[in-house]
Design goal:
The protein is an alpha/beta fold and 265 residues long. It has a single domain, classed as NAD(P)-binding Rossmann-like Domain (Rossmann fold, 3-Layer(aba) Sandwich). Helix content is 52%, strand content 14%. It is globular.
């Protein structure tokens, strides 16, 4: 086993995960990256290695495959000392449930919920070996209220948030600090960007640069902050959502999200 310390990042081939990888490398951390095959992650890893002089290892797999994920996590545990886990991989989408296949909904639950729990549970023994270690779980502002036409996605992110809070309390005595990141809209890919633009002016108010979100979240997680909401507009919205009756929040957000319906999974 390598005696170097590593950050394990899931869904690191593109979007926010890639930003986490670049920012962590810029802070001098070695990386283990999990990504879907075909996302050019090995070439990203070589680039990061060359630019920042850190060690980077890549595992390409579909994290919805429980057995493959289990074997990969076992190998990672045998080879690398992971002191920081960033559970970033996640998918969603906007469509009427009647227009969506069960398989598409099942993949959201498998990746956002099951794989997130599987990765976290598998890495806790390794993380607990350090005097101080960290878990950063990526939820979403969507965790704050149910949303029509997204239904399963906000429910999956509410699960992640609740799971992480329970875990934070449970792992307190073991030196493992758990933080939750609640990003608002981020223009990480064409599909997400199109959906954000379709929602109009209010959705655009919460937009923040992807690298800035990643850097801020890493630093706050290392300071053991429990909940991280990037950006002042998103923090105001989060407070409003705490005060608003759930039915009102549900109606307001769903009306805005309905405008995205031209963008599907
Ligand atoms: N974009 C937003 O507006 C927004 C807002 C709030 C929260 N978030 C959350 O932020 C996280 C990253 O989102 P993003 O927009 O950057 O992502 P993205 O570009 O849409 O890609 C989704 C991420 O999940 C990974 N992934 C998808 N299916 C996978 C699978 N079966 N196995 C392994 N990895 C898989 C992808 O890995 P590869 O890189 O290998 O493709 C990618 O990193 C997600 O948890 C998302 O829910 C995003």
């Amino acid at each position: 086993m390598s005696d170097q310390k590593f950050v394990l990042i899931t869904g690191a081939g593109k979007g926010l995960g890639k930003a986490f990888a670049t920012q962590c490398a810029g802070m001098g951390y070695n990386l283990v990256l999990l990504a879907l095959p075909g996302e050019n992650t090995p070439s990203l890893a070589r680039h990061i290695q060359y630019q920042f002089g850190v060690a980077v290892f890549v595992y390409e797999l579909d994290m919805c495959d429980e057995e493959q994920l289990s074997a990969t996590l076992q190998e990672i545990n045998e080879k690398y000392q992971v002191f920081f886990l960033i559970n970033n991989a996640g998918i969603g989408g906007t469509a009427s449930i009647t227009q969506t296949s069960f398989q598409a909904l099942d993949r959201i639950i498998r990746l956002n919920v099951k794989a997130g729990v599987q990765v976290t549970k598998s890495m806790i023994p390794a993380l607990s070996r350090f005097k101080e270690s960290y878990i950063l779980n990526v939820a979403s502002m969507a965790a704050f209220a149910p949303i029509a036409y997204k239904t399963v996605y906000p429910a999956s992110k509410a699960f992640i948030a609740s799971f992480s809070m329970g875990l934070r309390e449970e792992l307190k005595g073991q030196g493992v600090s758990v933080s939750i990141l609640y990003p608002g809209p981020i223009m990480t890919n064409c599909n997400v960007s199109g959906r954000i633009l379709a929602q109009g002016f209010v959705a655009r108010l919460g937009l923040i640069n992807t690298d800035a979100i990643a850097r801020d979240a890493i630093l706050k997680c290392l300071k053991k902050r429990a909940r991280i909401v990037p950006g002042i507009w998103n923090r105001i919205t989060a407070k409003l959502l705490e005060w608003l009756p759930v039915d009102t929040a549900l109606h307001l957000i769903s009306t805005s999200v309905k405008r995205e319906l031209s963008y599907t999974f």
